[in-house]
């Protein structure tokens, strides 16, 4: 493998030319793969996350199978909430549950500061182990949830469709909202810095639920905190990917919030999105994950459409608009990698 192959993902993050377009997938290690499902029969999801050897094994599972250009550490965005004191459980069918949600000032004041080196040491250990295994082959991405997404889980007690309780805290008690976001920001900077020290070569910040916000509320209640984190993380020297979904109407503000790479979903054409973001940034996305279930000719048509719209411009990282879905055919995922790598711009 040439040096260019090793680092094409990092070059694209910096907007530099690459030999071919780099590609990786969110949730590229996961339940659509038999090797992962076999492990899940023996261990719970949290056991897989907290055992660094198992997390390393899961991280490595898809790399040679798919031929992607980057690895992303196997973990979960909610892991830091447990040492903060809210608890964390994963229930079959319902997903994550926060047993002690944050509802008032007393709850916020009870939240504990997190020492990432100690409280989340298993994540750092897994990063170190993965780096040993893939050194010289491809870079490793670390990640965390963005302040808004983590706070919404803490307030709602789990997933939400309308985020009513979260928005009411913003609107009715903005000082409490600010206090909670401040605590989460402090934790996130420490946690993500720890990941870089352990060996992560890029960081992705997942604001998975921020698409529920209006443009003015995003700017007022969320953007300042995202800006603060990204600004602080610049000191690490690694590229920062600002990932959001459902934000086609917010992309100019998401770009203003910061990040070397702006990642977005399939609800906007990639060339239109890049225009809104600004061509001084790199971009990532934006294939609909459900398209990976479609016949190969349909997948090829959509992949080629994205590539044509990009037109060979430097700074493009091919990805989905969200994670790989359960039951996705592995051979379809591999086919997308081949389509992207083999594509020749006219």
Counting helices, strands and paired strands, the structural category is: alpha/beta
- Average pLDDT rating: 96
Note the beta-strand portion: 5-15%
CA(first)-CA(last) distance: 26 Å
Number of domains: 1
Based on the coordinates given, report the CATH architecture: Alpha-Beta Barrel
Instruction: Work out the radius of gyration.
Output: 19 Å
Contiguous uncertain segments of 5+ residues: none
Order of the strands making up the biggest sheet = 1-4-5-6-7-8-9
> What would CATH call the class?
Alpha Beta
Shape descriptor reads globular
| Main beta sheet | 7 strands, parallel
One letter per element, helices H and strands E, the order comes to HHHHEHEEHHHEHHHEHEHEHEHEH
The proportion of residues forming helix, as a percent range, comes to: 40-55%
- For the secondary structure, the number of strands is 9
Give a quick rundown of the structure:
The chain has 346 residues and is of the alpha/beta class. It contains 16 helices and nine strands. It has a single domain (3-342), classed as TIM Barrel (Alpha-Beta Barrel), CATH 3.20.20.
């Amino acid at each position: 493998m040439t040096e260019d192959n090793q680092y094409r993902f990092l070059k694209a993050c910096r907007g530099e030319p690459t030999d071919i377009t780099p590609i990786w997938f969110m949730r590229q290690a996961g339940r659509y793969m038999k090797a992962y499902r076999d492990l899940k029969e023996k261990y719970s999801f949290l056991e897989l996350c907290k055992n660094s050897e198992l997390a390393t094994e899961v991280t490595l599972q898809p790399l040679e199978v798919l031929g992607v250009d980057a690895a992303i550490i196997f973990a979960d965005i909610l892991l830091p909430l447990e040492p903060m004191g809210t608890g964390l459980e994963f229930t079959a069918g319902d997903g994550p549950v926060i047993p002690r949600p944050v509802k008032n000032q007393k709850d916020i004041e009870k939240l504990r500061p997190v020492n990432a080196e100690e409280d989340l040491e298993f994540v750092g250990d897994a990063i170190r182990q993965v780096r040993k295994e893939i050194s010289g082959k491809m870079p490793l991405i670390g990640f965390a949830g963005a302040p808004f997404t983590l706070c919404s889980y803490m307030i709602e007690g789990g997933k939400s469709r309308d985020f009513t309780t979260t928005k009411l805290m913003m609107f009715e008690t903005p000082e409490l909202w600010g206090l909670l976001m401040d605590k989460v920001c402090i934790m996130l900077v420490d946690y993500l810095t720890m990941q870089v020290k352990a060996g992560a070569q890029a960081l992705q910040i997942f604001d998975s639920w921020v698409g529920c916000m209006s443009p003015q509320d995003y700017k007022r209640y969320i953007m300042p905190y995202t800006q603060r984190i990204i600004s602080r993380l610049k000191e690490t020297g690694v590229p920062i990917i600002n990932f959001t979904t459902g934000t086609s109407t917010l992309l100019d503000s998401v770009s203003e919030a910061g990040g070397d790479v702006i990642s977005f979903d399939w609800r906007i054409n990639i060339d239109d999105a890049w225009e809104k973001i600004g061509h001084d940034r790199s971009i990532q996305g934006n294939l609909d994950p459900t398209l990976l279930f479609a016949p190969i000719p349909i997948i090829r048509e959509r992949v080629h459409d994205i590539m044509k719209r990009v037109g060979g411009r430097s700074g493009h990282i091919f990805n989905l608009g969200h994670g790989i879905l359960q039951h996705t055919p592995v051979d379809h995922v591999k086919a997308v990698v081949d389509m992207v790598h083999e594509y020749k711009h006219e």
